[in-house]
């Protein structure tokens, strides 16, 4: 970012920053962006931290950050319900029996735990749908689709 600045002394190939860059990004060109390439070498989730004001960053970056925060598990769990208790009965969008049985937000943060909430018939129907629609798409999942 500031590596081409005339106000700073130039970096030589023996500097610790350049050695670390060469170690973490073999075959990469420094001119193509030091911090982006260093971020690529990190394990996910990758977060690029910057001191730049948001006005100098891509407008899409702020929207992406907002979506990521809004859809995070912690935010969804802490968020107020869409309806109050009296509105739920009037609107009819909430299955009140399921809410009474399981609570308002029954996700525990365990991957695949939702399958335990299905009946055998629902699980079978879901498996048939996934075989028909997802397998031919070429989408690969980390966990096998049972």
Automatic annotation (TrEMBL):
InterPro entries: P-loop_NTPase, Sulfotransferase_dom. Residues 66-135 form the Sulfotransferase domain. The lineage of its organism: Eukaryota, Metazoa, Ecdysozoa, Arthropoda, Crustacea. This is Putative Sulfotransferase domain-containing protein 1. It comes from the Eukaryota. SUPFAM superfamilies: P-loop containing nucleoside triphosphate hydrolases (SSF52540). GO terms for molecular function: sulfotransferase activity.
